[in-house]
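[step 3/7] fold_predict: job queued, chain A
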Amino acid sequence: MTVITTTHALEAFCREISSAPFVAVDTEFMRETTYWPKLCLIQAATPDLAAAIDPLAQDIDLSRFLDILRDARIEKVFHAARQDIEIFHNLEAIPQPLFDTQIAGMAAGFGEQIAYDALVRQMLRLEIDKSSRFTDWSRRPLSAAQIDYALADVIHLATLYPRLRAQLAESGRLDWVGEEMAALTDPALYDTDPERAWRRLKPRRHTARYLAAFRAVAAWRERTAQQRDQPRGRILKDEAIDELATQAPTDLEALSRLRAVPKGLPGSRFGAEIVEAIAKALVDPEAYAPKIDRERAPSRPASGAVVELLKVLLKARAEESGVASKLIATVADLERIAAEGETSIPALEGWRRAAFGEDALRLMRGELALVLDGSRLRVVEVRRAPRAE
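[step 4/7] structure written:
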């Protein structure tokens, strides 16, 4: 049981793992009541060495370990890495190159967003003790049970990673996950600039007035959540942002009449700030409104029935290839195909086109049909009768 609490010990550990081809990494953090995640523990392991790093220790500087995360010669292995990457992004150390075993598991046939304990159970035939999962990781001292639990996660991860990677390489699917890893390490995914906070939400209208107010309120909420270190939802719910953008109140009386606005907010400092933010945005809404990429939306409404057929085809092809359907295409992709046919989307490119996209287009052209053969769904070619001369 190794817990690193000093800079000297951390530097020694990093020297030992710096020549490893990969390092498995996990974190324990808390953010239920905060905007910024509070990093409480970092676990790291190679096939030969494992340690827990205490970032809350007084005499510790994480710089050397952050250098390991940035080192392009060492692959960093996580499971369901997004929240971990967000933490390291805040420390200016996005792990690269990255291998996420949850995404890799989807490509290897382990199902949609497989949980870590399920992946360990299926690949290593081991059961993980999850009794320490929801403990308070910010309290010190940590118990032996907590440390054993935390270290077991990365020790097992370092064991299953080479097997999972080899399985993907053997099936020719290793490159399939590369795209997903690139998207996962894109700094834009973790952008906390308040003026871009609206991108996390789904505007329901596209008028300049609505979008300007929408951006202004989303920016106000993000800025306030950061300053108060509180979750966004505790400041203002998403649905309230839409109502505020729709109604665009420019005085406290109009604000107080909105149903989605929490009671007491109009009479508080927050109420005045929201009204002021909206009023400023509406001085020149055309200039302030965000520019929505309308190309991402279908140019015409998709037929619901066609989308449902494509969902069935996607499920069938995903089952046949042993790949999670979510990795192949999203519902938005299916809607674009249903509305436009050939279009520029991930589902119609690269391996996804071979696994599903080409058949989706053929189904749209009437060249394929879905047939129920007893309890089994089959995809069959449609034989067209020759035209009479």
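[step 5/7] annotate
Residues 144-170 form the longest helix (27 residues).
The radius of gyration is 25 Å.
exit 0
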